[in-house]
């Protein structure tokens, strides 16, 4: 797969960013983010409504009794 070429505007923006004192961090291969640092996780579909959660909880209680 060919590398994407950077435009003049992108390279200029990177040079300005580095000139401000920022640094590029190179991580070792296979390094993963700790679970504590992850704020949002991808979920499939819409979350259940509060009403639906209460209905499910009540149904579970009835099945246990």
Summarize the structure.
The protein is an all-alpha fold.
What does this structure look like?
The protein has 65 residues and is mainly alpha-helical. It is built from 2 helices and no strands. The chain is elongated, with a radius of gyration of 24 Å. The mean pLDDT is 83.
Write the layout of secondary structure elements.
Blueprint: H1 8-19, H2 50-64
| Proportion of residues in β-strands | under 5%
Please count the helical segments: 2
Radius of gyration: 24 Å
Principal-axis shape equals elongated
Low-confidence stretches: none
End-to-end distance: 60 Å
Largest sheet: none
Count of strand segments? 0
* Alpha-beta content class: mainly alpha
N to C succession of SSEs: HH
Defining traits:
mainly alpha; 0% strand
């Amino acid at each position: 797969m060919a590398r994407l070429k950077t435009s003049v505007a992108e390279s200029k923006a990177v040079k300005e960013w580095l000139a401000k004192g920022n640094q590029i961090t190179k991580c070792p291969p296979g390094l993963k983010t700790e679970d504590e640092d992850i704020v949002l996780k991808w979920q499939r579909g819409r979350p259940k409504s509060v009403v639906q959660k209460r209905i499910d909880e009540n149904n579970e209680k009835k099945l246990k009794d």
